[in-house]
UniProtKB/TrEMBL annotation:
Residues reported in the UniProt entry to bind Zn(2+): 128, 191, 212
Source organism of the structure: Glaciimonas soli
CDD domains per record: NagA
Residues annotated as the enzyme's active site: 267 (proton donor/acceptor)
SUPFAM superfamilies in the record: Composite domain of metallo-dependent hydrolases, Metallo-dependent hydrolases
Keyword field: Carbohydrate metabolism, Hydrolase, Metal-binding
Assigned protein family: Belongs to the metallo-dependent hydrolases superfamily. NagA family.
EC number annotated for this UniProt entry: 3.5.1.25
Domain named Amidohydrolase-related: residues: 49-369
Cofactor: a divalent metal cation
PANTHER family linked to this entry: N-ACETYLGLUCOSAMINE-6-PHOSPHATE DEACETYLASE
One GO MF term attached to the UniProt entry: metal ion binding
Source taxon at top rank: Bacteria
Protein name listed in UniProt: N-acetylglucosamine-6-phosphate deacetylase
Length: 376
């Protein structure tokens, strides 16, 4: 894009709030205004809130499509989530037979090459399985296998693997955690029956975070702290689903106090943005009703959450708008080592959100392109 766009309001910068204007094309070219010494969310003040675009590192689906559908499904998903403020994302796979993973990853790999108009940027893949504990599948189909470096390298040939979820207690996995981490891959602990000691060992061997903290892992008990205890005691980063269904608000607050860079994901499914009914999550049939998504036996199976609602939920729990933005934009960018997204700063991509005073999304820009919100 060559033309410069200007929007005005209360701009959240890495240095704090500025009352002024943001100038951008595909990149942010500058900003003008006055630093605010007050919280612009106070009732006595006016003006829209201008925030960095959301970065969602755990997205299975949306708009009726699932990442495992391959083909053009990922574009439908990226379009639906862009309408709710997600400007970049990781397409997340399910535990599945190798041929299914190859097809899904090939489609993701193609989508990573160029962003389709109206869509969020696909940064790569979060491989959630098949390297998980078959005793802690959650809503994952039972195709769990032990990981090998050769198979991971093969899957990486189809699409960038930015995150990989592994149960570290499985035979051979701890050594693989170290190898993958030494090679620059972000390894997350998840879908695990591991102990506190297993979690600490994985972190010492390079594991960087935890997949949907509290869910599909051993719980914390005061004499058996489990994987949750390892996260709360030692983690710098962990992802959490703040739909207020997967995790109790009190547990969310405890995690925020314990984990400095806890960040939020949707773990969204094909049911996101769709009416109640039956949808597919990989090879599983899931049911959307009463704001949640479940298997036939009642097991939670991902969510219908969108990132704009995640932001509102965090604010409803007492977080400032600034901190809620950090946990939905900046921290996930930092976790992946991305410096040109997740913040409103000259030279960064123009991934920009505009919210009104009631935190209703008014405008979304992905790399400077304004997204049509009419059908959101």
């Amino acid at each position: 894009m060559s033309s410069i766009t200007q929007i005005e309001g209360n701009v959240l910068t890495p240095q704090g709030w500025v009352s002024g204007a943001l100038h951008f094309s595909d990149l942010i070219t500058g900003m003008t205004g006055t630093p605010l010494e007050f919280d612009p969310t106070d009732d006595d003040h006016t003006g829209d809130y201008i925030l960095p675009g959301f970065i969602d590192l755990h997205v299975h689906g949306g708009g009726g499509q699932d990442v495992m559908n391959a083909g053009d499904a990922v574009h439908t998903i990226a379009h639906m989530h862009a309408q709710h403020g997600t400007t970049s994302m990781l397409a997340t796979t399910m535990t599945a037979p190798l041929p299914d993973l190859e097809l899904a990853l090939a489609a993701i790999g193609r989508a990573c090459l160029a962003r389709q108009s109206g869509c969020a940027r696909i940064l790569g893949t979060h491989l959630e399985g098949p390297y998980i504990n078959p005793g802690k599948l959650g809503a994952q189909p039972n195709f769990a296998v032990a990981a090998t470096l050769e198979q991971v390298d093969w899957l990486r040939s189809f699409a960038p693997l930015k995150l990989i979820t592994i149960a570290p207690e499985m035979s051979g996995h701890l050594a693989l955690v170290k190898t993958l981490s030494d090679n620059g891959m972000r390894v997350q602990i998840g879908h695990t029956l591991g102990t506190y000691e297993d979690g600490v060992a994985a972190l010492e061997n390079g594991a960087a975070g935890f997949t949907h903290l509290f869910n599909a892992m051993t719980a914390m008990h005061h004499r058996e702290p489990g994987m949750v205890g390892a996260a709360l005691a030692h983690a710098e980063y962990a992802e959490l689903i703040p739909d207020l269904l997967h995790v109790h608000p009190g547990a969310i607050k405890a995690a925020i106090r314990a984990i400095p860079h806890l960040y939020c994901v949707t773990d969204s499914t094909a049911a996101s943005g769709m009416p109640d009914g039956e949808y597919m999550l990989g090879r599983q049939v899931v049911h959307k009703c009463m704001g949640g998504v479940r298997l036939a036996d009642g097991t939670l199976a991902g969510s219908t959450l969108t990132m704009d609602q995640a932001l509102r939920n965090l604010v409803s729990l007492g977080l400032s708008l600034e901190e809620a933005s950090l946990r939905t934009s900046t921290y996930p960018a930092d976790y992946l080592g991305i410096t040109e997204r997740g913040r409103l700063k000259t030279g960064c991509f123009a991934d920009i959100l505009v919210f009104d005073r009631q935190l209703k999304l008014k405008a979304v820009y992905v790399e400077g392109e304004q997204i049509d919100l009419n059908n959101a």
